[in-house]
Fold this protein.
Amino acid sequence: QVQLVESGGGLVQAGGSLRLSCAASGSIFSINSMDWYRQAPGKQRELVAGITSDGRTDYTHSVKGRFTISRDNAKNTVYLQMNSLKPEDTGVYSCNADVAVGPGTTWNGWGQGTQVTVSS
């Protein structure tokens, strides 16, 4: 089984920064993609940023130039550096990972989420 544990959320003023981490553990053969999602109150969950096994990244338009996703393959960890935070970035941030757990077998799952609150 695979577990994802996020950390790094909190309360920050507009213009500030936070760095989120998502660490994967368990029976991991290799990690394919890892993505960060967020869900604001009353809104649907949206994809914020993603990174593939070979380091290709993608971002939703509203965070381009402010957020940076990266990964440490040795630690099975993905990071989301969030700068110039805005109140509209507030929400629960969750990571999703697509993990190879054996030859031809993959696992896809979610972490528990971490709250990010940006005050104006």
User: Anything to note?
Assistant: DSSP finds no helices and eleven strands in the chain. The two ends are 41 Å apart (CA to CA). The first strand starts at residue 2 and ends at 7. The chain has a mean pLDDT of 96.
